[in-house]
Each structure stands twice: as structure tokens, then as C-alpha cells.
Amino acid sequence: MLDGAELGMALANHPGDPEAALTSYEHALFPRSAASAAASTANLNLMFGPNGLQGLLDQFSTPPEPTPA
Predict the structure, then answer these.
(1) N- to C-terminal Cα distance for the chain?
(2) Computed from CA positions of residues 9, 14, 15, 21, in that sequence, does the dihedral angle turn out positive or negative?
(3) Which among 6, 17, 43, 48 counts the fewest CB atoms within 10 Å?
(4) What is the C-alpha to C-alpha distance for residues 18 and 20, in angstroms, rounded to an integer?
(5) Bigger pLDDT: 37 or 69?
(6) For residue 58, which of 66, 39, 49, 67 has the smallest C-alpha distance?
(7) pTM of the shown model
(8) Quick one: DSSP state of residue 52?
């Protein structure tokens, strides 16, 4: 929803110039989405890498590390 709202604001702030609106929108979008893209890449490598099945088994059979208080 945030992405849609920010795109709408960028379009409103650059009437008649969708390229400028997209450039403005992407300036905030790309840094914000970098962590999600990296996590997605890591998951793809885990599942479809050379030892994908073993990686998934390890992930589901290893207890999570405790969260610091």
C-alpha cells in the first residue's frame, strides 16, 4: 500500500511527466526494497541451489536462535 501511495504522490507531483514521476518514486523504492530482494535471492538459492533439499530440511529441523531481550 505504501508503494501505491508513493507512486500516486509522485504522479501528482509531476503532472504530465510520468518519467520524472517514476524516477522520483524509484529513488525511494529501490533502497527500501533492497533487503527484501536480498532475502528473496537467498531463499531462491536455498531452495533451488545444488543442495536445495538438504538446505530446506536443515532450515526446518534446526531450532531458531533465541531472540535477545
Answers:
(1) 31
(2) negative
(3) 48
(4) 5
(5) 37
(6) 49
(7) 0.55
(8) H
Amino acid occupying residue 67? T
Which amino acid, 39? A
Give tens-digit pLDDT for 26-48: 999 999 899 999 999 988 888 88
C-alpha cell at 40: 528473496
Task: Identify whether the C-beta of residue 28 lies closer than 8 Å to the C-beta of residue 9.
Answer: no
Q: Ranked by mean pLDDT, which of 12-16, 47-51, 59-63 comes out on top?
A: 12-16
Find the range with the poorest average confidence among 5-9, 13-17, 55-59: 55-59
Amino acid letter for position 62 = T
Q: Which residues contact 14 (CB under 8 A, 6 or more apart)?
A: 20, 21, 24
